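queue> pop job 88
queue> type: inverse folding (structure -> sequence)
queue> payload:
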């Protein structure tokens, strides 16, 4: 079970990154070129929101079933964790939740805007913050290695 959830979390992360980068680039281009907000832009923002929330759910299941999550903290205490173990047990989940919070706030705020430029700008700001947070806490040595 654990290996299936771990692989799902790892491979789903590729989709999250691709869609999140697409949403950020789309909103930045349209913000700076004063393009109209279209149904396609709404779908990209919504799909990004959905994909990131699914990743969060998979990650939470992994966190509570993984030997690198809660169990590692219980067994070793915070002082007994190596820097990599701390990344997996604390930093990665916390910053991931923070990133998804920014994405969710951006999506919610953009829906309340009435014109195109503020809609694109809101998505650009909040989704970019979410993307940066995600990129800082990916365990690259495990993910690419």
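queue> result:
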């Amino acid at each position: 079970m654990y290996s299936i959830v771990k692989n799902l979390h790892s491979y789903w992360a590729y989709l999250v990154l691709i869609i999140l980068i697409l949403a950020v680039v789309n909103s930045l281009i349209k913000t700076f070129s004063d393009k109209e907000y279209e149904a396609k832009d709404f779908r990209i923002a919504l799909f990004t929101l959905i994909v990131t929330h699914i990743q969060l759910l998979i990650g939470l299941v992994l966190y509570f079933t993984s030997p690198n999550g809660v169990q590692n903290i219980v067994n070793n205490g915070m002082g007994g964790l190596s820097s990599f173990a701390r990344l997996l047990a604390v930093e990665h989940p916390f910053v991931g939740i923070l990133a998804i919070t920014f994405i969710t706030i951006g999506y919610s705020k953009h829906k309340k805007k009435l014109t195109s430029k503020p809609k694109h700008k809101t998505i650009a700001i909040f989704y970019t913050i979410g993307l940066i947070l995600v990129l800082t806490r990916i365990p690259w040595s495990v993910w690419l290695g």
